[in-house]
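Worked example

This section walks through a single chain of length 128. The input is the sequence exactly as stored; nothing has been trimmed or padded.
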Amino acid sequence: MTRPLRIREALFSFALLALGASEVLAANAGPADGKALLEKNCGRCHSLEATGASPLPQAPPLREVYLKYPIDQLEEGFAEGMGSRHRDMPQIQFSDDQVAAILNYLGSITGVDPANRAPATIPGETPP
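Given that input, the structure is written out below as tokens.
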């Protein structure tokens, strides 16, 4: 009877180790991870660099999108899938960790740290 308990303990320990490793990986997600995500999912149409035109002329460079929209709208858009009037644009949903990595990358190429970006304000309200 002690053998099943050891297997159960080993599985539990493995699960804790895997959970801890995923948290460490998420905490270490940086601009390079964000760039890789954007290259895989957005680079076919959008410019992902600090300068230069997009491969698809109608697709705005993501640096411009980053600077144009309030940070909370970007976070929500990347997490829920950006909407577009362009029917061929896929609705890609990113995890919170992926969104953070993407915003860190876009902040690194624009020189505007996402932590310093203001959220959207309601007309008549003063930002916090």
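What to look for: The two ends are 60 Å apart (CA to CA).
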